[in-house]
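Reopening this ticket.

The earlier resolution said the output was attached, but the attachment link was broken on my side. Pasting everything inline this time so it's all in one place.
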Amino acid sequence: MVHPENLVLEQLRAIRGDMGELVNEMQTMRVEITAMRQHMTGMMTIQEHDHVDIAGIKNRLERIEKRLELAD
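Inline output:
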């Protein structure tokens, strides 16, 4: 006959093992999320630079149009 204490201990050990696996998976997910955040930050920085470049090009185009008397 199996003692109830042994059954409880076996279940607790299994739960501990499962918890350990979950902790490892969560740590991996944290690393992945951090990498994604860094990537998004880089993309936003590039996008901001693109907006600045486009604004500069628009200004230059407006000046050119005025000089050539093409502006409305």
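Reporter confirms the inline version is readable. The chain has one helix and no strands. The chain has a mean pLDDT of 93.
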